[in-house]
Automatic annotation (TrEMBL), chains A, B, C, D:
Coiled-coil ranges from the UniProt annotation: none
Protein name: Acetoacetate decarboxylase (ADC)
Organism: Pyrobaculum oguniense (strain DSM 13380 / JCM 10595 / TE7)
InterPro entries to which the protein is assigned, alphabetical: Acetoacetate_decarboxylase, ADC_dom_sf
Pfam family, one: ADC
Gene3D superfamilies from the UniProt entry: Acetoacetate decarboxylase-like
Alphabetical list of SUPFAM superfamilies matching this protein: Acetoacetate decarboxylase-like
Molecular function in Gene Ontology: lyase activity
């Protein structure tokens, strides 16, 4: 089965293998309220804001297709990536969803894999605090621990965040946003060609979240000429979060096709 | 018009703007004959080899949408990229084409722009000799000038080439391969979703080629666990080339849709 | 002769070869006046400001040891680098000099080569407009042409500049600053070890400058937690410049040793 | 105190702060025997091989000056780096040492910090397997776990290694090599300037090693025109190792000065 280019008989050169995919992730995040007015400029046709809450994070992933971790030792770069993103709480046809107007990663396969699943990925330089079990003061999650990170693309800082942990928590507030809605888009480039516009939700298999801590957060929003992240205007930082997560992505579920143009 | 993600009202955050696109390029290339047997493993359904000739190059591009060079001074990285590729001479339904089984670039927008147009792009580290008008011995194309470059992806060297210029030439041999055939592929990720498989040819507007030199060439083919470039097995290096090119890409022309699976 | 680490019998693995070095460069620069008060915090012991003028640039270099351009085709990355810098006009013992409080490059060998010659180099992401002879409107220097670039380090934008060319010029104003003064610094890390503090001037062989254009300029100064470039506070942008330069660096000339601590 | 360039009054812009430094590290390594003949070409004056054993590793570090972890949340990239290296067992004046003929890192501050301490650092692209506590089969060290990594510089793969864990171990064999001997080298660039050639040993404060596992190993040695790592010719891979380490570097101890040239 030819899932993605490049094509070879073995399928081993494709930039992305077919799902299911496994994800094990560390997140540093801030939960904020935003000015809804500029944020509406981030919504594709049919979407509305369901609340004025938003979520920004930086993260590091270990990820590969289920039953195939071979690249984890042959070429670890094909199994590790960093990601930063902005999530909004939107509504489509009366249903509440989590929607990503922006998402940046640092690997080509994560970019294309995401693009096929409807995520608006670009490449950026993403950084986040590292913990190590042997480093005094940075080996364990604990009250007072300061963590931070950022997303920068080319010569422009897009956002930087910091979190100071205060206490363990049971979960993260974005669970209330609803399922993840994405927008598959593959434009026609000539007459008679497919022109894909599809709202889909991401179908997860098992999923868990551990080591959740909350505390104080801060975030600084930047801008780039090709990255209008300044349409996210923070009113208040409600909290800062750290957590680890494991999930499996199986497929997507079609919600709505949009007629071309 | 929403051409590509991310979506914003202004359209200014999209990773790719709609065509037409302008391209001004410097190429260092080798023209080779290859063993047809392993090379057949690189062909998607319906394609055959039309000859045992192939072409490998490294190159640097200045490129942006026509009538919009603003990023050339706001963020030059959104207008400059390097590319390395392998081109084969294939036949589809009796017609001869130039087909790229592999192509690597070093920018996200070049990757997605290419993917939409059916090019099998990945990211890699690409390098090629630089000329400068003030550098003694490297300011002008001249007999005896040695040029080189390579493509490496993660921890694997994919190919390295060298060219020693001998004399001016009128053109490059790949013109004989025919128009560029690409393969638009955007897989369904769930039931009822579009599953795009389309052979298209790239429609160029004006196009010119200047400063063509030929000479001796050499090339060393590598391998990667996700990049089976070793299926290109060189029998003979016929020549080495340097040239500059300008062209405009307007759209693509649908040649054939393939029924899904 | 062991000039730099790593050591091998052949000397071919050293990160830097001995001088003389050749440099062929394209520069985009702005000439500015600055607030002298914060800028004084950038001066090492004994230096004073000689004027309130400063110069910021982004540039791309082709550079290698004289009589040895082999790497230009074996590994072009060992002969190409980009550089961004801030230059001040300082005085030491009554003599006027050009002094770089900050300089960023994008290659390890340019970093160490510079460090040995007393330049305060770090690595950064540097970008600048590219010209190409075949690109309409970006093939020739001409009135109205807009050029730009930036320096960003990790998640922080350090400066961005733009220039709009107006007319040809005879030279660049930094010639009036005097010779380039650098500060060789290699600290002792234990008792009895050498602790180098030396002011030197860079000794150039032949040097020329061509294609000088001036026009309007603009610059935006950023900041980083490890890059206090915000100590450069612009009062006025006097002009913007583009030029090409060739020069040879032969050695340095000792001006003054400083007693350790 | 001005420890390193760039100089500012606050000291906050220096590429490296003074020691002591903290290091918390994950290592993947292979223990090998080598052909002594070519390896001798890697030894600076006065060194001899003390055995035909060598050690190659890839690793990831969390590291910063003691009592100053601020960058861990302001700019995590100033506290995280990857390193790959080759270690030999040498003798100087009858004393056995661990000596690094080659060491590559991926951050400028790690490069200069190392260079000041006598390590022959260059920049390279370094990758190693990542573990994550929530990833099935890659959350825990266990028999059968496969790990790997590599060092590549520009277009050349320098080495790749793989380890398959078999059992816990008490320590790593390089402890028997002796203390770490490095070679501080800062060449004069003009008459009367300091010309530093000093053998020193690295002085560690507390140091510990945990989670040591050993098993099967394999390694593939490459080559680069500026990286003669092919002088390491493997006779046998004795074992593969994974371990974590914490140590503090306080200073260096002068062993021997070499008369210039």
């Amino acid at each position: 089965m030819i899932y993605a280019l490049p094509v070879t008989r073995s399928g081993r050169s494709a930039i992305v293998q077919p799902p299911p995919y496994l994800y094990a992730v560390d997140y540093i995040a801030v939960y904020v309220s935003i000015d809804p007015e500029p944020a509406r400029e981030l919504l594709p046709p049919g979407l509305e804001l369901a609340s004025n809450k938003a979520w920004l994070y930086v993260s590091e992933f270990l990820s590969y297709p289920e039953n195939n971790d071979e690249m984890a030792y042959l070429d670890p770069e094909l199994t590790i990536y960093r990601e930063g993103a902005v999530a909004l709480n939107v509504a489509l046809d009366g249903q509440s969803y989590l929607y990503f107007p922006f998402m940046w990663v640092d690997k080509d396969w994560a970019l294309i894999r995401g693009y096929i699943n409807g995520y608006p990925k670009k490449l950026a330089h993403i950084s986040l605090s590292k913990l190590h079990p042997l480093m005094p003061g940075r080996g364990q999650l604990a009250p007072g621990l300061k963590l931070g990170g950022y997303v920068a693309r080319n010569g422009y800082a897009l956002f930087r965040l910091q979190v100071e942990l205060m206490e363990k928590a049971d979960g993260v507030p974005i669970s209330a946003f609803g399922p993840t809605l994405t927008f598959r888009r593959y434009p026609a480039t000539g007459a008679g060609e497919a022109d894909v516009w599809e709202y889909v939700t991401v179908v997860k298999g098992e999923s868990k979240i551990t080591d959740v801590w909350k505390g104080r957060g801060s975030v600084e929003i930047g801008w780039g000429p090709n990255d209008e992240v300044n349409l996210i205007q923070i009113k208040e930082v409600i909290g800062g979060y750290y957590y680890r997560s494991f999930f499996k992505i199986l497929s997507t579920k079609l919600i709505k096709k949009i007629q071309s143009k």
